[in-house]
Automatic annotation (TrEMBL):
The keyword Hydrolase applies. This is Esterase. The active site is at 71 (nucleophile), 217 (proton acceptor). InterPro entries: Acyl_Trfase/lysoPLipase, NTE, PNPLA_dom. A motif (GXGXXG) lies at residues 41-46. Keywords: Hydrolase, Lipid degradation, Lipid metabolism. Gene3D superfamilies: Cytosolic phospholipase A2 catalytic domain (3.40.1090.10). A motif (DGA/G) lies at residues 217-219. It holds the Pfam family Patatin. The keyword Glycosyltransferase does not apply. GO terms for molecular function: hydrolase activity.
Amino acid sequence: MTPLASRADKAKLIWASLRRWWNADFSVVPSSRLLNLGLQGGGAHGAYTWGVLDALLEEPSIEFSALSGSSAGAINAVVFANGWMQGGRTGARTALDDFWMEVGQQIPWPLVTQGQGDSINLTIVARVLTQWLGMFAPIQLNPLGLNPLRDILNNHIDFEGLRRKSPFRLFVGATHVNSGKLRLFREHELQLDMLLASACLPRLHHTVIVDGEPYWDGGYSANPAVFPLLRGKGSLDILLILLAPQLQDDVDQSVESIATRIQEIGFTGHFIREMHMLADAVNVSDRGRLETVRFHMIDAENLDVLRRSETKLLAYGPFLEMLRDHGRIRTKQWLAENLQSIGKRGTLDWAHWTV
């Protein structure tokens, strides 16, 4: 069997499995502007998604059904849902604003940053310090397990309320340390530690224990998980909000650049493989059920500042607001071009995932 034939046969098996799965529990609720959202993580770069969500919320014809995310993507999803629960569309916008504004005030970043606007970055001293910190385990540098994000999330999110009456289906991705498997925490069980687990970078934070099991950042196993958005009552329009560049420039051979690229590949590999499988399934579906699943994508491909991996740690107010503004502008452009397609046709170019 040739490699090409083998890939086609595999895609057919995937499609057959998906079709059986859908037939078991899948129904469509007609709506011309109902979206499921897949939110990628990326530390401080998640402020770009803040801007994307803010612009989507400004469009009154768009509604939402489910949100899946890992790391910063999961946090954006939960803050979004919590705000909507408390005050609808306006409440969601306010909740995102309040959360990211507080994140940007935790550290006196002006002491360790240089430049302005898109050129803002860490100083040389700050970069060296960041590399130095990476040589020690969190238990050595932070024996008490202090995490400012814990207090911020606890103050901003009503976890009990979300468990009782979340307005959306939520899928919070975390990576089970012992098995390496993806764990999706749902809205009806969501607790603070589950969200912290989704954003736990093991070189910076203590491993998060949930129900006696250790978890790390969800980006290691899915960033984000797309498959849960394909199932359940609700929209067949899936909007992917991506932060990682689809294609990176040539990587130089310095130790720092190699380590950075290894980390980037680790955080996108599972997502790319999942999209490859879906693309193959679409190609062999013979105008089947998957063609009724309409995929869309808003990315940050042309934003050079997000290609600098070290800025994922730059939780500095002006930098976060700049990313928010870029996200808003990009989304406004996307809506102008694609709003009428929601509910009718997909706008994602599958060539991204078939190379």
